[in-house]
Amino acid sequence: MANKIDEIDMKIIKLLSQNARMTYKELADKLKTTRQRISRRMNKLEKLGVIQKYTAIPNYEKLGYTYLILGITLRAGSDVDEIIEKLQNIECVKIIQKAIGSHNLVVHIIAPHDMKRIQDIINEISKAIPGIDHMDITFITETTKIEFF
Amino acid sequence: MANKIDEIDMKIIKLLSQNARMTYKELADKLKTTRQRISRRMNKLEKLGVIQKYTAIPNYEKLGYTYLILGITLRAGSDVDEIIEKLQNIECVKIIQKAIGSHNLVVHIIAPHDMKRIQDIINEISKAIPGIDHMDITFITETTKIEFF
Questions:
Q1: Coil/strand/helix, residue B3
Q2: Where do the domains of chain B lie?
Q3: Looking at the domain covering B60-140, what would its CATH class be?
Q4: End-to-end distance of chain A based on CA atoms, in angstroms?
Q5: What is the mean pLDDT of residues A7-19?
Q6: Contact B19 A54 (CB under 8 A)
Q7: Does pLDDT of A104 surpass 80?
Q8: Which residues belong to any copy of the HTH asnC-type domain (chains A, B) (predicted)?
Q9: Do domains B7-47 and B60-140 have the same CATH topology?
Q10: Orientation of helix B35-47 relative to helix B7-18, angle to 10°
Q11: Class of domain B7-47
């Protein structure tokens, strides 16, 4: 995969990660090429899944929401895919990541500021996951740097 | 803050979190309003910092990069802001989050697939942080759901 992606592709990804709303024209000017070529490359990157998503990152604190990360360690032999399927449709579960290392599963939750409600959500998730060995619960209070590439 | 933000603002944030490249016209059509009104609201949301960033989310695996999350627990009395300042300019440190709970500091790293290099980066970060009590190192292997609002 990586060898289908050249240096110009990498520059396009970098620029879009800094500002996903850049127009084809702005990208073309910066990279001294044409809008058509930019559009073609972006289509390719989207099709290959190299660019997963264009998104707006809200400031959850300012919106009155709480952002928390659950770092979950599963017991040996747990079926992580089955667990992910159960979590997939819980509305406030926004990001699900398979992992190795300290945690096998990382779950990001965005929920209204309401500790009672958050407790219910954590309980719901705990129940949905058989074989939890350990769960680290971390409440994000401020993001001081945010880049994606 | 939250009361300056109305239901239409919330809808705009939701739509942009699903696709940050939507045009003013597309947003206006979906929300049955005008491009001018959408543009004015987006300006307001950006100015208030309610929208932090428009970004492209790459698939790091497909690009040949490793994505890891360090969950750091500091000893009582550590100066977290001083630590963040030291981490801010390390190139592969992409996201820095202040937190409470299991971890006081969450650091997201994007680095080329090269375990020797990653070890060096982790060592560099460990040295930059006085008063680490515990560090959880989690390598993200796959993201199965990704939403930001």
A1: helix
A2: 7-47, 60-140
A3: alpha beta
A4: 17
A5: 98
A6: yes
A7: yes
A8: 5-66
A9: no
A10: 90
A11: mainly alpha
